[in-house]
Amino acid sequence: MARSAGLVGLATSASRVLGLVREQTVAFLFGAGMETDAFNVAFRIPNLLRDLFAEGALSSAFVPTFTSTLTRNGRQQAFALAGKVVGALLLVVGALCLLGFLFTPALVRCFAPGIWSVPGKGELTVDLTRIMLPFLLLIALAALAMGMLNSLGRYVLPALAPVMLNLGMIVVGTGLALAAPRLGMTPVAGLAIGVMVGGFGQLVVQLPPLWREGFAARPRVDFGDAGVRQILGLMAPAAIGLAATQVNILVNTQIASFLVEGSISWLNYAFRLMQLPIGVFGVSVATVMLPAVARHLALREMESARARVAGALLLMNPMGHRGLALATAVTGLLNFVILVRPAARRLDGLELPALLSCILRVTIACTAMGLAMHWAVGLVPGTLTGVVPVDRALPLALAGLFGAPVLVGAAKVLGIAEIDEIVTMVGRKLGRAR
Length: 434
Description:
Blueprint: H1 2-30, H2 34-73, H3 75-102, H4 104-111, H5 121-132, H6 135-151, H7 156-160, H8 162-183, H9 187-204, H10 207-212, H11 226-256, H12 263-298, H13 302-316, H14 326-346, H15 352-377, H16 390-413, H17 418-433
């Protein structure tokens, strides 16, 4: 699992770094003002629904059900189930997009009521939202394709698929924004069109490998199917679990809409930075773990399922970073406390004392690393402050130089076995590179 998670982490890193380039491009072209505020609110409407349902609740409900059907009944029945889910998505999400198009002003008022206080800002947000609403359907289908490929053991290409969204916004969006005066359109509308092109690319790039795996099922609407009902039943608790973060984002956007112009944009830039470590470490482990655990559960291999979940939890702990917002960290801790006991019951035990003992040891090791990094940053001479890029690169280099060995050493002293696996994996990668 560590090797697959590492590959997914590298692919996700490429996508997230390109996402930062995308945000830098948007900031360079438009800064933080009326147009970027309008775009960020408009993009957040389908994006929030995507995070909550398409790539959130749907993925976490579909992957175990599809994997279980694949393991027990074979590809033909698994692909038939996927065809029924595609049909349901086309119907339900298509209807949501249509309703959203008809009631866009009300949607915008719900997400950012203060945006209407600036003349023309609310109207621009409505126009941009209507351009990007179909993105929700494209990304829901892309998430479904990703879930199928992950269940079939194909991880890297689905993890790279979001690159298409970033490329669409950078290449198409920037090109149209620069050409907007000649085309008679608002420059920021070019970014919205770039989102649509990128979403389409994110779906299409995953279709050829799916076809090669044998997927040829036609979309069908059958809400009476047992598999579809199971997915719907699993989506409800998953959506509730994900709602805390999404409601937090919604409330932040609502409050920021009443603040000075550009507040929504600055909030968005900070949120994107926060998502980088979460995407690289958390998502990569979860992407590989979910199909594997579902496969073990379908075969009643409870011991293997417990080992997978415990291993994933232990691998993720050393990867925390203080740059994550404290509120988000506390929310994640509460989610862990709430969900770990039901997970332990479902898996007939998770060896909680050993898990909590390891978490405590990891916390001590990370604290030692943080103190070492803080001390190392203080070694930078004050005379270099303000010398760009030395004042940024040197503290970062020193922090890494001192922090990494302290973390490894502390983990070994405290008996964290997973550190040996990580060191071995990194050593193999470096050996191949040479």
